[in-house]
Specification:
Layout lengths: L1 E9 L3 E6 L5 H10 L15 E7 L4 E9 L9 E9 L12 H4 L18 E2 L11 H4 L3 H13 L4 E4 L3 H12 L12 E2 L7 E2 L2 E2 L2 E4 L1 H10 L3 E2 L5 H20 L4 H16 L6 H14 L7 H16 L16 H4 L4 H8 L7 H12 L5 H13 L2 H11 L3 H7 L14 H14 L5 H14 L5 H8 L1 H11 L19 H8 L5 H10 L12 H11 L6 H17 L6 H16 L5 H8 L13 H11 L10
Parallel strand pairs: 7-11, 7-12, 8-11
Antiparallel strand pairs: 1-2, 1-5, 1-6, 3-4, 3-8, 4-5, 9-10
Helix pairs in contact: 4-5, 4-7, 7-8, 8-9, 8-10, 12-14, 13-14, 13-15, 14-16, 16-17, 18-20, 20-21, 22-24, 24-25, 25-27
Length: 635
């Protein structure tokens, strides 16, 4: 491991004096004020030094500095700060067996060429190490160790620890840095002796230890959180276990990861009876599993963790990592966990806990799933209620698509087909991916739900996915005893196979349904010319003859007349008379939309230009041209 270093001190102001490499300007802007005295009073004494630490993730290193009072300088208030730049390129890197206390060197200006000590890189490897004194951890007062560690793991807001024992906290921090991967500190900054609020770019450090004399000024005026408010009983039982695990890992580094997982089990066991412990459970799981690389996974521990505590972890706040979503693929462990076991484990989430269910589902969908994660998503898909699904639409609709892949029955929920056009289109695509030929009955039921609930014009997409069964299902819906009026929004799909739709017209029971479908069909489609005149006459006799429902007769007549005008076939006289007279009456009332008249007029004969306004006259002339003697006198 190569550690760069730098020395800061007074030279016409507090500044960088010497370093082993060129420090980026962005780093210097942070280091120069932070490496200066932690307060404005000149009577402070840091003879033994205090520690500062802060990450520079963008530059790939973590800075740890030690600051001493510079008594030998004539100007009062001067300090020396020696900073070490620890590389973070390997997320599992820890500087175990290197004693930071031996690496920090206080300047001796009486020594010749004293600055040169800070111009060399510090190189540490297996053959060149200052072996860290393992006993120093055991000799630590557990209070300081637990306070620092619990502060690092528990707090999401800046924290102030009121204490004057700088040396004890220095030792506790050095012990942690020598025990944990550097990545553990990637979002942690600290100062073990703050006489004023220490900040990086106007943001307070994560942890500040401050003497009581100035503590109120720091934590009250700057809205920092005071350590004394933490639940000390829970802290003690939880982090005494972590302390023991870290002690053990220092002695047996090759078992470090498994040791941390053992701690997780111990932690969960001891915190089981503590109220509102779920958030902390998830946080510790995150620290123990996500942060620490698991090159040597202990499948028995993972299995135990899942079986005993999975429910607690899943019901944690949504911003925390869910165990099932972690990309850990130890098949020897996860293959032992059955789908039924997962179902029993997460069953509490289905008991009116939509928030937690949504958080879990979103975490699963957003993650690379291992075996547990995939099985968990399947269980959710099989058991999710329509109420919970609606909650997902309101908050995070994209989560429902993977659920459809695992359970197509979800497509039968009404709420899906009451969403906007984009969501319904994506759902149809998802169903298409998940479709199997064995589920024809399911497809039909899905179509019923679409027609009864959707208010979107998705006819083309529905036919593209389902084909002729989509038209047949529409007719089935229209033949139900109680017709849902929303169904008639979708009759345009009948044009996707107009001959099939015309053939199905004779199966309708309702004259209203007949009128709605015939109004949506395109009579200018050349395929309709192949239909026999007998069939057209049968529809007339079934739905129009003596029905005395104008809207039905008018709809059929407007559809039939263009076919008669375009066809070379002989139509029954009564049918022809019905079509001509009914359209003539519509035009006489000027009740035909212009878009329909514009198409029809192209089929009618021309008359004198000064009479072109007379639409009815053109219809009468068309009948006369065809040799029809129709009495257009209105009855």
């Amino acid at each position: 491991m190569v550690i760069e270093q730098a020395l800061f001190g007074y030279n016409n102001g507090h500044r960088l004096l010497v370093s082993s490499f060129v420090i980026p300007q962005d780093v210097l802007k942070v280091l120069e004020p932070l490496s200066d005295s932690s307060g404005t009073s000149y009577n402070q004494d840091y003879s033994d030094g205090y520690l500062i630490g802060f990450p520079f993730n963008a530059f790939g290193f973590y800075c740890v500095g030690k600051t001493w009072t510079a008594h030998e300088m004539q100007r009062p208030g001067c300090v020396w700060t020696h900073v070490l730049f620890i590389p973070m390129q390997d997320p599992s890197t820890a500087i175990c067996n290197i004693d930071l206390n031996q690496l920090f060197i206080r300047p001796n200006i009486n020594k010749k060429n004293w600055e040169k000590e800070y111009t060399n890189k510090i190189i540490k490897d297996e053959t060149n190490q200052n072996i860290y004194n393992k006993a120093s951890v055991n000799n630590l007062c557990s209070t300081y160790f637990e306070k620092i560690l619990s502060a690092f793991l528990q707090r999401k807001t800046p924290l102030v620890i009121v204490d004057s024992d700088i040396l004890a906290y220095n030792n506790a921090i050095v012990s942690l840095i020598n025990s944990l991967p550097i990545k553990f500190f990637s979002n942690i900054s600290f100062c073990t002796c703050s006489f004023s609020n220490r900040c990086i770019q106007n943001k307070p450090l994560t942890i500040q230890v401050t003497p009581d004399i100035v503590s109120k000024v720091i934590w009250r005026e700057n809205n920092l959180y005071k350590y004394d408010d933490i639940n000390k009983v829970e802290t003690y039982c939880a982090f005494s276990c972590l302390r023991q695990a870290i002690k053990y890992s220092i002695n047996q580094l090759e078992n470090f990861n498994c040791t941390m997982l053992k701690f997780v089990i111990d932690y969960l066991i001891q915190c089981n009876e503590v109220d509102n412990s779920n958030q902390r459970i998830a946080e510790i799981v995150k620290s123990a599993i996500e942060i620490f690389s698991l090159e040597k996974k202990d499948s028995r521990i993972l299995l135990l963790l899942f079986r005993k505590w999975f429910t607690n972890i899943l019901t944690s706040d949504k911003e925390y990592v869910v165990f099932a979503t972690l990309n850990l693929n130890d098949s020897s462990c996860f293959s032992e966990i059955s789908e039924s076991e997962i179902s029993v484990t997460i069953n509490p989430l289905f008991q009116n806990n939509d928030k937690n269910l949504l958080a879990l589902t979103r975490n699963l969908v957003d993650s690379d799933l291992n075996i547990i994660g995939e099985q968990t998503l399947k269980v959710i898909a099989k058991n999710i209620s329509e109420k919970s699904l609606q909650y997902m639409f309101d908050d995070s609709f994209y989560t429902i698509y993977p659920l459809l892949l695992f359970n197509k029955q979800i497509a039968l929920y009404n709420c899906i087909w009451r969403q906007n056009y984009e969501i319904q289109s994506e759902v149809l695509k998802t169903i298409n991916v998940a479709y199997s030929k064995e589920s024809e009955n399911l497809r039909q039921l899905i179509l019923y739900k679409v027609y009864e609930n959707s208010e979107q014009n998705i006819a083309n997409k529905v036919f593209e996915l389902f084909g002729n069964i989509a038209i047949e299902a529409l007719y089935d819906c229209m033949n139900k005893p109680f017709i849902v009026q929303n169904i008639f929004r979708h009759t345009a799909i009948c044009n996707c196979n107009i001959l099939l739709s015309i053939d199905k017209l004779s199966t309708l029971y309702s004259r209203e349904a007949f009128a709605k479908v015939i109004s949506s069909l395109n009579p200018y489609n050349n395929e309709v010319l192949s239909v026999s005149t007998k069939y057209w006459n049968r529809l007339y006799e079934t739905f129009c003859n003596a029905c005395h429902e104008d809207f039905v007769e008018e709809a059929y007549a407007k559809f039939l007349l263009p076919i008669i005008l375009r066809s070379n076939k002989e139509f029954p006289f009564d049918l022809t008379t019905f079509a001509f007279k009914t359209v003539h009456d519509i035009l006489l009332r000027d009740a035909m939309p212009y878009s329909e008249w514009d198409k029809l007029s192209a089929l009618l004969p021309e008359i004198a230009f000064y009479k072109m306004w007379d639409k009815c006259k053109r219809v009468r002339k068309a009948a006369k041209v065809r040799g029809l003697h129709i009495d257009f006198t209105k009855q």
